[in-house]
From TrEMBL:
Belongs to the periplasmic pilus chaperone family. Residues 21-145 form the Pili assembly chaperone N-terminal domain. This is Molecular chaperone. It comes from the Bacteria. Keywords: Chaperone, Periplasm, Signal. GO terms for cellular component: outer membrane-bounded periplasmic space.
Length: 233
């Protein structure tokens, strides 16, 4: 394993090398009727970099060599030349143990490791190199679940004491970025992921009551924010 966890590669510093490998997407859906999907990486820098990619089950502290997932990523580690790209293939050899009535969520990790500076580049300069890790939602979606675009409209929000209960009766994960009163006053202080067929409870950052009209901002399959009107029960 090239790197077990995100790390900082330090050669005393400054300037700082920023991440230059761009992933074509903000979230990735694996339909159950597909054998594989592809993800495109692009290196926008003039120099090469190494990309390590793996999936985790939600614990960002777990190292790749300790994680077991049903998917296979090819290649898991690759050199991406400057101003060039790399196509990742993510395959699902079998569906044993996967659910058929709702989505399941994993996280796709990308660790970008910059090249070691040449002696000429490092000579007389302080250089800080960072291995930068990014994480993206990776969702397995069984066929026949219905209309994903309509799912946010089915959320049921209710007052439970001082908490706001968000019931998601749909088989889809719904990422809620904001909940606003009709007067645009925010109720949420952070993003909430409503899991399928479950209820999530949050403590709002502003007063609210049953009957309040609200606007729910959420993220669709393409990473765009869309809004739906609702009312607190």
């Amino acid at each position: 394993m090239l790197l077990r966890i995100i790390s900082i590669l330090l050669i005393i510093s400054f300037p700082v090398s920023a991440n230059n490998i761009i992933v074509n997407g903000t979230r990735f859906i694996f339909p159950s009727n597909e054998k594989e999907i592809t993800i495109q990486l692009n290196n926008t820098a003039d120099r090469p970099a190494v990309a390590q990619v793996w999936l985790d089950k939600g614990d960002a502290r777990e190292t790749p060599d300790n994680i077991s997932v049903p998917f296979i990523i090819t290649p898991p580690i690759s050199r991406v030349d400057g101003k060039s790209g790399q196509t990742l293939r993510i395959r699902l050899p079998n569906r044993n143990g996967l659910l058929s009535d709702r989505e399941q969520l994993w996280w796709l990790n990308l660790l970008e490791i910059p090249p070691t500076p040449t002696s000429a580049q490092a000579h007389g300069n302080n250089v800080l190199q960072l291995a930068i890790r990014s994480r993206f939602k990776f969702i397995y979606r069984p066929t026949g679940l219905g209309n994903r675009d309509a799912a946010p409209e089915l959320l049921v929000l209710s007052k439970q004491g001082e908490e706001l209960a968000i019931n998601n009766p749909t088989p889809f994960y719904i990422t809620i970025t904001r909940i606003l009163h009709a007067d645009n006053k925010p109720l949420l202080g952070k993003t909430v992921v409503a899991s399928p067929l479950s209820t999530t409870r949050v403590t709002p950052i502003a007063a609210f009551k049953s009957g309040d009209h609200i606007l729910i901002n959420n993220v669709n399959d393409y990473g765009s924010t869309v809004s739906v009107n609702s009312q607190i029960k």
